[in-house]
Each structure stands twice: as C-alpha cells, then as structure tokens.
Design goal:
Helices cover 70% and strands 7% of the residues. By secondary structure, it is mainly alpha-helical. The strands form 3 sheets. It has a 3-stranded antiparallel sheet, with helices on one face.
C-alpha cells in the first residue's frame, strides 16, 4: 500500500516537473519567435523605407524631365511664333517699299503721259491745219482739172472706176484661182499624209454581227423539254425575253432571232442556265430571265469601265459609262458599235495629236459620238442619234467642244470647233474599212440607182456613173450647155442634193467632167 502511494506520488511529482520544464521551454521558444519577428519587421520597414525613397527619387526625376520637355516645347512654340512675326514684319516692310516704289513710278508715268498728251494735242492741231490746207489745194486742183478736161469729178471717177474694174476683176480671179489651187494641193497632201499615218497606226480586226444566235443542245430530248407541253415553255421564254425562238429540223440546235443583241444574249444565257439546271417550267423561266437580266446589266457597266480605262479617259459620268457598255450589244450596218466607237476614239486621238490638238478630248468625243444609237426609251428613237447623243453629253456635264463634235458628225448642226471635222472624218474611216460593214445587195443597188438619178435631175447632164461601191459619182456634162464655172456649181449642187435626200455610210465624192472636142476631117 505504501509502495503504491510512493509510486503515485513519484508519478505526480514527475508530471509536475515535466509540466514546469515544458512551460519553460515554451517561454524560451516564444521569446525567440518574438525576437525573430521583430527583426523581420524591422528589416521589412527598412526595405520599405528604402524602396519609398527610390520611388520618390524616380518620380522627382520624371517630374523634372516632363517639366524640361514641356519647357522645351513651349520655347519652340514661342520661337516659331517669333519667327512668323518677324517674317510677317519683313513681308510688310517689303510690301511698303514696293508700294512706295510703285507710287513713284506711277507719278513718273503720269507726268510722262501728261507731257505726251500735251504733245499729241499740239500735233493734232497742226494736222488739222495741214488737212484743211490740203483740202483747199485739192479742191482747187479738181476745179482746174474739170476746166481742162471738160468733165466733172464724178464723171471722171466713174470712167476711171469702169476702166479699172475689169482689169482688177480678172487679176483678182487669176490670183484667187492660183491661191486656191496651191491651197488645195497643199491641204490635200497634208490631209492624205495625216489620214494615212493614222490608219496605218490603228489596225483592228473586223467582225460583222448577225441578228440571230444559234443555241446548241445535246439531244432532241432537251429540245422537247425546252418546247414544253403544248409549247408553254417556249412561249414563256419568248414572252420574258422578247426574242423569237425558231425550232426547226436542224439537229441539236435552236435559233434565237432578235435585232436587239441584249435581249438575244439574255435569252441565250437563260437557256444555258435552264438546260444546265434541268428544271424548265414557266415560273423557273421567269426567275432565271430576271437573274440573267441583272447579270447582263452588271456586265454592261463592267464593259463600259474597262473601255474607258483602256482608252485613258477619266471623269466620265456613270450614266455615260453605262451607255458605252450597252454599245457592245448594238450594231450599225453589221459593225459592232462598241468596237466602232473604240476605233474612232483611237483614230481621233492620233489625228488630233498630228494636228497639235488635245488628243484626250478627241478620244472622249470619238468614244461618245454614237451613244445616241443606244436609246433608253422609244420616244428617243424619233430624235437623230447625233442630236440625242449631244443632248445626253450636255446633260451629263461634257465640255461644249465634245458636245458639238457629237452633234455635228453627221452635219445636223453647225461645226464650231476643230474636233468636229476630226470626229466626222474618223467615223467615215472606221465605217469605210473593207469588211467593216455589211451591205444588203438590194439596198446597195438601189443606192447606186438613186445616186445616178439625182445627177440626171440637173440640166446639162449627159451621163452619170456611180463607182467605187457608191462612194464616188462621176457626172459627164454637155460642154455646150455647161461652162467651167457652171460645172463647179453643178458639182456643189449635186453633192448638197445627195446629202439632203439620201442616207449612206461614209462620204460620196461628186466629180463633174466637162470635155470640149474640136473635130475636123482632112481630105
């Protein structure tokens, strides 16, 4: 029992001693942690203070640099203002000195003018006195001559005028004839040289447009689908496009006939899309035709833009560009209108450069000279294409020289600039190229007959021949009825009659031949 108590007491004392030792160790560790924490806090505070000082110094340096930069900019602004003010003061001083010198010169000139005016007035007085003296002497001489010749001054003047009139007239006619022959020879040589050089430098291919297009198909089954049940598909295509579709026995082909090339192209592309897609019925036909029309309109604008860019023409109104593009789908006597206008523009540019005129303006007028052939409305068709083109050019802000050249290239209005005859000549050159235009045989023969009949309509005409494909008319007259002067008048009158009554491409040369023969027989 005593041993148990001793053991318990020993355990309790050991526990107490352990507890006391643990507390002492805990206090020593806590004091060490506190000391290390204080050291860390002091180091952090010291580091923060050092970092704050460095930031403060950096901010102060940045502020000083910004201040110096603003100060330098301010000084530059002040220096530039001072320089501007000094320059302005210098200009003012220069102007003042210039004004003062001009004033002195003006005063000097006024003095000289005043002196010359006085001298002029004096000379006028002297001349008036001398003129009155001369009139008096002339009158006395005339009176003496009237007494000597027993003729009055008016009678003597009339006789002198009558004697000189015939001589002066014959001399003047001979002089005028020589100068006209010389001018004609020189002008013809220069004109031929310029025209030949221009034609040689502009060489283009010619292709005659037709009024029909052939649409090829793969088989007759496709042809039947295009025709549709009881022909409803083909009627829908004709109604939507305005093109006549001819379906004959030709294998694997359908003919599209229309004088409007735009409609014909719309019909051809629409048929191609319908056949490729395979769905052919009236509703689908109307949808495809509308899409194709929009596509063609966009293509017209692109063609106009490319044409203008190729020719180097700038600042053309968008509506005129669209009209230029539409010329791709028009033809004149079988000649493609856009190709013809491009060729005329190039010819005009070269010819204007040879003559020392503005080639860009000539190109512009040459390209636009036939825009009146692509009217938008039926009401415009009643107006001559040259006048209609001139009205459009004026409407869209073209220069007066260009407008006059467009309106006068078929002599509908008077030519008021040098560009107008150039456009007319180049238009005739382009249309007169071999193979450029298609001539229908019947109309060609009728035109030749009309030319000869116009010549026979004048008195004194013995024979008349239309030669060179109707581009020249040779008229043989009776020498007893028609004199040399009348032959020239007859040639002019026939040319005016042809120009007024006939329609023809290019020009017609009228040559009147008068021949006198003296025949005797030796026996």
């Amino acid at each position: 029992m005593d041993n148990t108590i001793l053991i318990i007491a020993g355990i309790a004392i050991g526990a107490l001693i352990g507890f006391i030792i643990a507390k002492m160790l805990e206090r020593s560790n806590a004091s060490k942690l506190i000391k290390s924490a204080k050291k860390s806090a002091a180091a952090i505070v010291k580091e923060a203070n050092a970092e704050g000082e460095s930031i403060k110094k950096d901010k102060i340096l940045q502020a000083k640099e910004k201040f110096l930069e603003l100060k330098a900019e301010h000084e530059k602004v002040i220096m530039s203002r001072d320089k501007k003010m000094s320059d302005a003061e210098k200009r003012i001083r220069d102007k003042e000195s210039q004004v003062s010198s001009e004033l002195s010169k003006t005063k000097k000139l006024n003095a000289e003018i005043e002196e010359k005016s006085n001298d002029f007035d004096h000379r006028l007085d002297v001349l008036d006195k001398k003129q009155s003296e001369l009139d008096r002497l002339h009158k006395s001489q005339v009176e003496q001559l009237e007494v000597i010749s027993s003729l009055s001054a008016d009678e003597a003047k009339e006789q002198l005028i009558e004697s000189l009139k015939g001589e002066a007239k014959s001399d003047a006619m001979a002089y005028i004839q020589d100068k006209m022959e010389e001018a004609k020879l020189t002008a013809q040589q220069e004109a031929k040289k310029i025209i030949i050089n221009t034609i040689q430098r502009i060489g283009t291919e010619e292709a005659v447009d037709n009024c029909v297009s052939v649409f090829n198909i793969e088989s007759d089954d496709v042809k039947g689908r295009i025709i549709g049940r009881e022909g409803r598909n083909i009627r829908a295509i004709e109604a939507a496009t305005g093109v006549e579709i001819i379906v004959d026995d030709t294998p694997e082909a359908i003919i599209l006939s229309c004088f409007d090339s735009v409609r014909r192209e719309v019909a051809r592309l629409s048929l191609h899309k319908l056949v490729t897609d395979g769905r052919i019925h009236p509703a689908r036909i109307e949808e495809v035709v509308k899409k194709t029309q929009k596509q063609i309109e966009q293509e017209i604008i692109e063609v106009g833009k490319r044409t203008v860019i190729d020719l180097g023409i700038h600042g053309l109104h968008p509506e005129l560009i669209k009209m230029v593009g539409r010329m791709k789908y028009r033809s004149s006597y079988g000649q493609n209108l856009l190709q013809h206008s491009r060729e005329v523009a190039k010819l005009c540019g070269v010819m204007a450069a040879e003559l020392g005129l503005n080639p860009k303006l000539a190109k512009r007028a040459g390209l636009l000279h036939d825009i009146g052939k692509v009217p938008d409305a039926e009401a415009d068709m009643e107006t001559p294409h040259a006048i209609l083109g001139m009205q459009w050019a004026e409407k869209f802000g073209e220069k007066p020289d260009v407008c006059n050249a467009i309106g006068a290239h078929h002599d509908e209005i008077e030519m008021k600039s040098l560009l107008s005859p150039i456009i007319q000549v180049c238009d005739a050159i382009s249309g007169a190229r071999p193979g450029a235009r298609r001539q229908v045989l019947d109309s060609y023969i009728q035109r030749l007959k009309d030319l000869e009949e116009i010549a026979f309509g004048f008195s004194g005409v013995k024979k008349a021949y239309a030669i060179q494909a109707g581009r020249e008319l040779r008229v043989i007259v009776e020498s007893e009825k028609v004199s040399d002067q009348n032959a020239a008048d007859l040639s002019f009158n026939i040319s005016q009659k042809i120009q007024t009554d006939m329609t023809y491409p290019g020009q017609v040369k009228v040559t009147v031949i008068r021949e006198t023969r003296a025949i005797n027989i030796a026996k």
